[in-house]
Amino acid sequence: MEKRRHIAFAGVSVAMVLLTAACGSSKDNSAGSANVQPAGGSQTVGAGASASAGAEAGGYEAGGDSGAGAGGEAERTGPAKQLAVKEDAKLGKFVTDSKGWTLYRFDEDTPKPAKSNCNDDCATKWPAVPADDAAATTGIEASKLGSVTRTDGTKQLTLAGWPVYRFAGDNKPGDTKGQGVGGTWNALAPDGKPAGKTAAADDSLQLMVNNNAKLGKIVVDGKGMTVYRFNKDSAWPMKTGCLGACLDTWKPVKAVDTTKVAGLDASKVTSFKRPDGTKQAAFDCWLLYTFTGDEKPGDINGQGVKGTWFAVTDKGKKAGQ
């Protein structure tokens, strides 16, 4: 009898390993792993008045200097004026302000719609660049410059939708000490993408995180549309419960390249082969969908529909639960 119990326990253990492998085995990385124009005016940008979920990203523990070197704090809080494009062997091309201070972007921000998630303590270490008195130059498309309203009402410069920052840990113009901090901060390439990262020809983001006012940090697709998970799907093993007429309302998110994911653990992004042979993206083994009832980025009209559909948090859980 004791022997049988040992055999049964071993069988359960093997089954669990197989289920884990079944989810992980579907991971899909095949996609590869001189005119000057103004950006528009605004008031001076402050540090921000409200708490931010972005402040927990670990992006402000730079270590070393506090940034009290050449130029002082004023140079890292004033307007960027005429931007410039610099280049070095490590980062390739990256953007600086008119005085040569490196400009940065934060992976936990969103470009569609533009939103800064760096406030309070975060904004002290990563001063927001004001939108006023900023101009594009050779190598930067003027149409990519814009602005976003921060939580304190000030206007921050954006490049290709991404809010722009300086780093208090840079001691002098030309420093790039903010590169890679917390795994979420990168120097800005002239097209708004992270400098120094190798990517495919089309390296626009396919999955990212948006800080929703009602639900907190939720996953959105590359267009900024909220993605959802379905209670009638299964994660262990991965199975879909959305078939037939269900697919008229809930559209499977296509499998994504994990090098084009920001703000969530890319190692948990996998894919699932649907009955029709197409590949659907999954996060933490839960299949992802968009909702036809959402009309624009930021909409969460699918949240709680029939008590079975929920937006997905940055940890893969059901939002609002």
TrEMBL record:
<feature type="compositionally biased region" description="Low complexity">
    <location>
        <begin position="39"/>
        <end position="55"/>
    </location>
</feature>
<dbReference type="InterPro" id="IPR005297">
    <property type="entry name" value="Lipoprotein_repeat"/>
</dbReference>
<feature type="compositionally biased region" description="Basic and acidic residues">
    <location>
        <begin position="73"/>
        <end position="84"/>
    </location>
</feature>
<feature type="signal peptide">
    <location>
        <begin position="1"/>
        <end position="21"/>
    </location>
</feature>
<dbReference type="GO" id="GO:0043448">
    <property type="term" value="P:alkane catabolic process"/>
</dbReference>
<feature type="compositionally biased region" description="Gly residues">
    <location>
        <begin position="56"/>
        <end position="72"/>
    </location>
</feature>
<protein>
    <recommendedName>
        <fullName>Lipoprotein</fullName>
    </recommendedName>
</protein>
<dbReference type="InterPro" id="IPR047910">
    <property type="entry name" value="SCO0930-like"/>
</dbReference>
<feature type="region of interest" description="Disordered">
    <location>
        <begin position="170"/>
        <end position="197"/>
    </location>
</feature>
<feature type="region of interest" description="Disordered">
    <location>
        <begin position="29"/>
        <end position="84"/>
    </location>
</feature>
<keyword id="KW-0732">Signal</keyword>
<dbReference type="Pfam" id="PF03640">
    <property type="entry name" value="Lipoprotein_15"/>
</dbReference>
